[in-house]
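To illustrate the input format used throughout this study, we show a single complete record. The first block contains the structure-token representation of the backbone; no residue identities are included at this stage. The design step must infer an amino acid for every position from geometry alone.
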């Protein structure tokens, strides 16, 4: 393990195009049942891919998952999502450094296939990761707690901000 392992993890993340990264305590990352309702009633992507609800972990399951980790890295991609390929590569490189519990949560629906066939097994199991919001994480509060920008997008002129969460232990 390197002298400063957290810097090493942050460097891996930044080398894959992230704008900024902040170490967070996963036990402080908020989840909520309301997040699942936003997926189920209001998002056209509900049920459309294996990484989205109802296939993704419930908020309750995610709470248990987050409480099972001591360290997380909130990844701020900027105004363009980093994509699952980059995220999976980050997870893989961190895992190979010895952090055997490394697991990444992305943003938005899975973009790896033109259309998800909704059949197990998934076509890209090593890269397909559910998004933070699909798992019931309050991404707005998580970003604000870390001092990162995020606001409700109200029109096409508004620029969105994209986040991922890497769990490490
Ligand atoms: S990789 Fe393809 S099959 Fe797997 S969840 Fe993504 S879209 Fe669906």
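Output of the design step:
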């Amino acid at each position: 393990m390197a002298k400063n392992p957290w810097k090493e993890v942050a460097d891996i993340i930044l080398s894959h195009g992230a704008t900024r990264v902040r170490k967070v305590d996963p036990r402080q990352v908020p989840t909520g049942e309301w997040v699942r309702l936003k997926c189920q009633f209001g998002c056209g992507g509900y049920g459309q891919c294996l990484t989205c609800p109802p296939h993704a972990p419930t908020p309750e399951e995610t709470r248990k998952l987050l409480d099972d980790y001591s360290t997380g890295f909130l990844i701020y991609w900027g105004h363009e999502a980093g994509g699952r390929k980059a995220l999976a590569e980050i997870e893989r490189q961190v895992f190979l450094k010895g952090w055997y519990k490394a697991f990444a949560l992305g943003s938005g629906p899975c973009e790896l296939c033109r259309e998800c066939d909704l059949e197990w097994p998934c076509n890209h199991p090593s890269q397909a990761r559910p998004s933070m919001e699909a798992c019931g994480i309050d991404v707005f509060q998580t970003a604000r707690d870390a001092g990162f920008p995020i606001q409700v997008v109200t029109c096409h002129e508004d620029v969105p901000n994209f986040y991922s969460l890497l769990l490490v232990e």
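Structural context for interpreting the output: The pocket of iron/sulfur cluster is lined by residues 49-51, 110, 112-113, 116-117, 122-124, 128 (CB under 6 Å). The first strand starts at residue 20 and ends at 24.
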